From TrEMBL:
Keywords: NAD, Oxidoreductase
Domain Lactate/malate dehydrogenase C-terminal: 145-291
A single GO BP: lactate metabolic process
Record-listed E.C. numbers: 1.1.1.37
Protein name: Malate dehydrogenase, NAD-dependent
Chain's gene name: mdh
GO molecular function: L-lactate dehydrogenase (NAD+) activity; L-malate dehydrogenase (NAD+) activity
InterPro entries on file: L-lactate/malate_DH, Lactate/malate_DH_C, Lactate/malate_DH_N, Lactate_DH/Glyco_Ohase_4_C, NAD(P)-bd_dom_sf
Domain Lactate/malate dehydrogenase N-terminal: 1-141
Amino acid sequence: MKISVIGAGNVGASVAYALALRGLCDELAIIDIFANHAKSKAMDIAQSTQVFNLPIKVNGGDDYTLVSKSDIVVMTAGSPRKPGQSREDLLLINAKVLKSVMENVKTYAPNAILIMVTNPLDVMVYLAQKFTGFKSSKIIGMAGELDSARLRYEISNLKGDADSKSMVVGAHNDKMIISKNYVKDALSDDEFKNISDDTKNGGAKFVELVGTSAFYAPAAGAVKLCEAIIKDKKELQSVSVILDGFACGRVASIAKDGICEIFELNLTQSEQEKLKESQEEIAKNIKFVEENL
Ligand SMILES: NC(=O)c1ccc[n+]([C@@H]2O[C@H](COP(=O)([O-])OP(=O)(O)OC[C@H]3O[C@@H](n4cnc5c(N)ncnc54)[C@H](O)[C@@H]3O)[C@@H](O)[C@H]2O)c1
């Protein structure tokens, strides 16, 4: 199993490190526009695997031949949010990065399953297909599992633990949906409201503290997707998927070929309206990129 991680920054390096230490692949490639940065991460991670005597080959650089024959490519290259920025402020900056990276992925790893992390996530998921022509079942956006982890973090801070099936669905922006239909823990109305607010604010709170976006928990979300693919788990995860003219969060079953089934969301009328609004916003942002790139 060969996995390539594009972008050796905070999220990319954390993905590569976690993949290596969990022994999920036997070959790992790390690519960044800053070749020495990627090489240094690869060397450091390769030395970490020696600590545990894990037989993993790790290479890094800016040369896309390193990505050849990857089974999975995790895309993390691009700018993260800075204080005061929304994920949407990154639209054109990261779409340009995505276009150049995807041309190389298409050339060197045409059979890979693509895990997208770069923000604004739902827009990038849709554009990744436009730039690669990959089947939509082979492009999966990671964000729902991060938002769900933040939800369970808030619940367990309050209640001591959280149901592992509680999840956040819908778009990866301020209109993410925290629905009682998907929260399996018993919460009063006040508790539900406070936990929803804190979960939605989880990303911004991190940006406020350190001036950039979170990385360990997002990396864990990407690794969870890799694991579901590698182990053919048919695991239900909250992921961004390509739909008709846009991409947005759905619950989908993840297995060896990528997305094997997408489920309709079970939402109340007002939640459905909110989902529709966020989908329209995503479609508008896609159009903006298409007209301005
Ligand atoms: N989906 C999510 O839930 C989620 C969570 C956190 C962060 N993110 C997003 O992930 C992305 C990366 O975040 P980060 O914190 O790792 O940022 P970072 O700045 O630490 O790392 C980004 C890396 O991308 C590299 N890069 C830039 N352009 C490139 C190109 N053309 N080719 C190859 N590499 C290139 C940079 O050199 C840098 O090393 C951001 O867009 C961020 O918003 C998404």
